[in-house]
């Protein structure tokens, strides 16, 4: 089938390449000529395991190409995926400017039936707005053409996006038109194996499903983070509590890991946007507000612990940071806890020596060259001569470090583990102090 994807960002690229992988003819359109040039010369603008090889393979096979030409994109595909960004407005609601611009452009260039597929995370009611925009633009050019707008949210996790797309646990399709539903079912058939994972529903329920999923996951994390602070106060160990509650299948072990807060481009943005949607409709959401507030406070927990440890004086001290990305297997630093901590340390007059397996370039892009930030090419160099080591991202390679080497490298032998990933007993055995989340030091 012929498929066009508007937006060659994270979601658009993964969707495009995976649809090409199963034999579709995919044309990706983006307004950024630099990005398209890079993709056409074999480069990839984002880091995602497996993506580069897959793009290469499908370009070679002639099933995947990239262009800035919107008209060619509209002419190409029966399916017109909208996967452009929806940056948050000042009040936290999603800005639909780019989504509606794509809708307008599709309406301007289409000459026969098209299916517009909302893939970006968009507020409930967006499909209606997209449909109104297309209707309006079609009538401006005096065209009377049929189209449908479908909500088909994505549930990809950064770092595991290809796997999530190729083997989805659900494919949510929101449409009121049974014929369109069948076309989407056919497009997704290669990904819909072993049992039916395609969930057909009305458009608004599909749109809300996406927010509900992310808000629920964020709620689990904030709940555990709140509990971790209570555990510390009462002298309990949150890791024991985690195992204790996770064994109940109604609760489950997933997404109940306490830490220094969730980040990324999705949870913070989506929780705020859902809160804003509810508020704009006259409903004051209390739980969603608390989920975000707990996370905001949790991102400062490590700084508080560090400050207490050093009796409130961090000026002139150097801190080794392991992990800059908001989670492992990505170089994405959007809303990362590392950024909050670095900025707090700088404000307190301290400097940072940071290592991340893939995000150092991104850190350089965000913060530029500055005397109080040193980015190292390996973990132990970051620790060298630092006053303390702070672990911020749960990268596998940080889980089992050489504690002897860390003790020799640090000026004061203490590890602050913001993700509870290293074995505190082993650290203590070599004379290191170990401070973690939700447990007595
Ligand atoms: C999230 C969802 O997991 C995806 O299903 C969804 O499709 C995606 O948002 C999206 O809306 O596009 P992602 O942002 O890639 O995916 O990241 P997650 O793996 O969910 O991690 C989010 C944050 O929560 C990370 O900072 C992680 O360190 C933190 N986390 C996760 C915890 O603190 N504790 C946990 O138990 C799990």
TrEMBL record:
It comes from the Bacteria. The keyword Transit peptide does not apply. SUPFAM superfamilies: 6-phosphogluconate dehydrogenase C-terminal domain-like, NAD(P)-binding Rossmann-fold domains, UDP-glucose/GDP-mannose dehydrogenase C-terminal domain. Pathway: Nucleotide-sugar biosynthesis; UDP-alpha-D-glucuronate biosynthesis; UDP-alpha-D-glucuronate from UDP-alpha-D-glucose: step 1/1. SMART domains: UDPG_MGDP_dh_C. The active site is at residue 266. NAD(+) binds at residues 30, 35, 86, 121, 158, 269, 334. Keywords: NAD, Oxidoreductase. Residues 320-424 form the UDP-glucose/GDP-mannose dehydrogenase C-terminal domain. One of its GO terms (molecular function) is UDP-glucose 6-dehydrogenase activity. The keyword Oxidoreductase applies. Catalyzes the conversion of UDP-glucose into UDP-glucuronate, one of the precursors of teichuronic acid. PANTHER family: UDP-GLUCOSE 6-DEHYDROGENASE TUAD. This is UDP-glucose 6-dehydrogenase. The lineage of its organism: Bacteria, Pseudomonadati, Pseudomonadota, Gammaproteobacteria, Chromatiales.
């Amino acid at each position: 089938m012929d498929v066009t994807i508007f937006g060659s960002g994270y979601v658009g690229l993964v969707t495009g390449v995976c649809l090409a992988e199963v034999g579709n003819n995919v044309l990706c359109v983006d307004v950024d000529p630099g990005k398209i040039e890079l993709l056409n010369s074999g480069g990839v603008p984002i880091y995602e395991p497996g993506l580069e090889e897959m793009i290469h393979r499908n370009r070679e096979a002639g099933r995947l190409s990239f262009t800035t030409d919107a008209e060619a994109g509209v002419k190409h595909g029966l399916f017109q995926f909208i996967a452009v960004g929806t940056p948050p407005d000042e009040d936290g609601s999603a800005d639909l400017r780019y989504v509606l611009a794509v809708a307008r452009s599709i309406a301007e260039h289409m000459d026969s039936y098209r299916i517009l597929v909302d893939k970006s995370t968009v507020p409930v009611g967006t499909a209606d707005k997209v449909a109104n925009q297309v209707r309006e633009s079609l009538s401006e050019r005096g065209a009377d053409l049929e189209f449908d707008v479908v909500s088909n949210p994505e549930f990809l996790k950064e770092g595991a996006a290809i796997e999530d797309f190729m083997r989805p646990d659900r494919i949510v399709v929101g449409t009121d038109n049974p014929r369109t539903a069948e076309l989407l079912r056919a497009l997704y058939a290669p990904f819909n194996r072993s049992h039916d994972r395609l969930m057909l529903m009305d458009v608004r329920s599909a749109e809300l499903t996406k927010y509900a999923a992310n808000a629920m996951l964020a709620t689990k994390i904030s709940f555990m983070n709140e509990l971790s602070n209570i555990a510390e106060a009462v002298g309990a160990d949150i890791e024991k509590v985690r195992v204790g509650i996770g064994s109940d299948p109604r609760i489950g072990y997933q997404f109940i890991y306490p830490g220094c807060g969730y980040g990324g481009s999705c949870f913070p943005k989506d929780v705020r946007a859902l809160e804003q949607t509810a508020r704009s409709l006259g409903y004051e959401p209390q739980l969603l507000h608390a989920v975000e507030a707990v996370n905001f406070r949790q991102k400062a927990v490590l700084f508080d612990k560090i400050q207490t440890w050093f009796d409130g004086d961090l000026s002139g001290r150097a801190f080794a940071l392991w992990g800059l990305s908001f989670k492992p297997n990505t170089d994405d630093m959007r809303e990362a806890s590392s950024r909050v901590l670095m900025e707090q340390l700088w404000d307190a007059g301290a400097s940072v020596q940071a290592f991340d397996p893939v995000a150092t370039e991104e850190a350089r892009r965000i913060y530029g060259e500055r005397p109080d930030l040193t980015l190292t090419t390996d973990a132990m160099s970051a620790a060298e001569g630092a006053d303390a080591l702070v672990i911020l991202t749960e990268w596998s390679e940080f889980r089992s470090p050489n504690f002897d080497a860390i003790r020799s490298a640090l000026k004061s032998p203490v590890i602050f583990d913001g993700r509870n990933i290293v074995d505190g007993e082993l650290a203590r055995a070599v004379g290191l102090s170990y401070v973690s989340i939700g447990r007595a030091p």
